[in-house]
Amino acid sequence: MKKTIGIIGAGNIGKTVAVHLLKSNYSVMISNSKDPESLKETVTLLGNGVKAVTIAEAAEADIIFLALPWSQVKTLTQITDWNNRIVIDATNHFITPDYQVEDLGDRASSEIVQNYLPGALIVKSFNTLYFKTLQADPKVANGNRVLFISGDDKEAKFQVSEMIKAIGFAPVDLGSLSVGSKFQQAKGALSTLNFIKL
């Protein structure tokens, strides 16, 4: 049985990922910073298999997907017991509308997310592609569009990789959060690059 996916954030990335998941028959719960009623139109557009929920309810899914603004990540700490929960970090550490990023020193943005969600099994992914590229068919030119992953837990990365393959993309493992995710994060070497795995 496919795992349930809880999406926190109903903007461009959250909705785009929901579409891919629903096409592959995943059960999706989507949430935002307001209340589930505010997502009525979004749920209607997305169609069968998606349910609008609170952030706390989305955080109870088998895999949790973070697609919310960077400034809001710190509000999630007390939402649930994050211990051993698989969390896909698709956030980018933008702090201004013109895409300036927060100075994190030598730390990766996903390491900061890890601090906010103690005990969570963080997997960095889904944040390197512009949402309109992510919206497109993942099967391209006899290959599959690449989604990079990084993380410190082998099983969590396996689960996320299986989900990525199920929706038609090709996972490429870059290693740990402290090393690999730096390539993926905003302004990183792989940010916005669209690779196809043949």
CATH topology: Rossmann fold
* Radius of gyration of CA atoms, rounded to a whole number: 15 Å
The CATH class, by name, is Alpha Beta
**CATH homologous superfamily grouping:** NAD(P)-binding Rossmann-like Domain
Query: Spans of 5+ residues with little confidence (pLDDT < 50)?
Result: none
**Level-2 CATH architecture:** 3-Layer(aba) Sandwich
Total tally of structural domains: 1
Distance between the termini: 28 Å
- By secondary-structure content and strand pairing, the structural class works out as alpha/beta
* Beta content: 15-25%
Could you estimate the helical fraction of the residues in percent? 25-40%
Overall pLDDT? 96
Short description:
The protein is of the alpha/beta class and 198 residues long. 27% of the residues lie in helices and 21% in strands.
Would you write up a description of this structure?
The chain is of the alpha/beta class and 198 residues long. It has a single domain, classed as 3-Layer(aba) Sandwich (Rossmann fold). Helix content is 27%, strand content 21%. It contains seven helices and ten strands. It has helices spanning 12-23, 40-46, 55-58, 109-116, 131-135, 154-166, 180-184; strands at residues 4-8, 27-31, 50-52, 63-66, 86-89, 121-124, 139-140, 143-151, 170-173, 196-197. Strands 1, 2, 3, 4, 5, 6, 7, 8, 9 and 10 form a ten-stranded mixed beta sheet that branches. The longest helix has 13 residues, at 154-166. The model has no long low-confidence stretch (mean pLDDT 96).
